[in-house]
Design a protein that fits this description.
Shape: rod-shaped
Largest sheet: 3 strands, antiparallel
Structural class: mainly alpha
Distance between the termini: 104 Å
Number of strands: 3
Radius of gyration: 34 Å
Strand content: 5-15%
């Protein structure tokens, strides 16, 4: 064997070793992405359970990284291609599960907010102290009017039995009357009377 042949064989062996090292690195990267996919469920659940205390899972970054992952042509073989294919399918199905998880959490949050708003509407504190400026008073009464309209819709009534102007006058008169008799520890709230089909002011029990 000539000197050149020896050098050539040595070069080929080193090249093959380098290729195997690069393939090993790719296997490690794919395995790491697979573990991150497995761990992502817990991160998403934790974030959705308490967004103020847990960081955003950044699952879209992981999805994007897996989708764009490529095996260089010179390093590709059936083993690596099989690992990557399995990972990408794994993330594809995981993405659908995460999306559903997220949608369920958003729906639950909206339902909770609606319930809270309804409860607030059933017993809304009236912030209209004497001496406040007219603009704020107008805004407060308009807000109470909107609450009454929403309550009417909730109970299946098409329209109010009184005009907005009549409602505004009634609220102002009732508030003034209640304010004269109110004790220091009493709060004035608005509740919806289903029989009278309108909101009424009274003392919080």
């Amino acid at each position: 064997m000539s000197y050149l042949e020896v050098i050539n064989m040595d070069f080929i062996e080193r090249r093959l070793e380098d290729i195997e090292k690069e393939r090993k690195k790719l296997e490690i990267q794919i395995a790491a992405l697979s573990r991150q996919t497995d761990e992502m469920d817990a991160k998403i659940r934790a974030y959705l359970a308490d967004r103020s205390r847990n960081p955003h899972p950044r699952h879209f970054d992981l999805i994007d990284k897996v989708q764009k992952f490529k095996i260089p042509g010179g390093l590709a073989n059936k083993s690596l291609e099989g690992l990557l294919d399995s990972l990408q399918w794994k993330v594809y199905y995981a993405q659908r599960a995460w999306q559903q998880m997220w949608q369920n959490a958003e729906a639950a949050q909206r339902a909770s907010k609606t319930t809270a708003d309804t409860t607030k509407a059933d017993a809304s504190e009236v912030d209209m102290p004497e001496g406040q400026n007219q603009e704020k008073s107008q805004y407060s009464v308009d807000t109470l009017w909107e609450i009454q309209q929403e309550k009417l819709k909730t109970y299946g009534y098409d329209q109010s039995i009184e005009t907005k102007s009549a409602f505004r006058n009634r609220m102002a008169e009732d508030y003034k009357r209640l304010s004269k008799d109110r004790r220091a520890d009493q709060e004035i709230v608005m509740t919806f009377d289903k029989d009278e089909k309108k909101c009424l002011l009274g003392f919080k029990e």
